[in-house]
Amino acid sequence: QVQLVESGGGLVQAGGSLRLSCTASERTASVNTMGWFRQAPGEVREIVARISNSDDSTYYTDSVKGRFTISRDNAKNTLYLQMNSLKPEDTAVYYCRARTVFGKEYWGRGTQVTVSS
Hints:
This protein is mainly beta. The chain has strands at 4-7, 10-13, 18-24, 31-39, 46-52, 58-60, 68-73, 78-83, 92-100, 105-107, 111-116.
């Protein structure tokens, strides 16, 4: 059972930056993608970015392209999300997800990001 723990959230002014981290309890060979999702109050959870473990290909939702960067450090079993030029609409709880080749998903408990205007 992979456990994911997010950290790095907080309160920041618009235009500021934060770096989120997601540390996995173990490295599982069956995990093929890692991703960041977010959920604002009253909204559905949406994907922010994901990265493939096989070829490092990435995907970003349109609203964060050019501002957010997803990356990972395999030696540390850690996934990152560098968030720059933050906007109030980026305010949400950010979740880390690992997905295996069998379709099983592991989720962290989330970290709050609040961007003030």
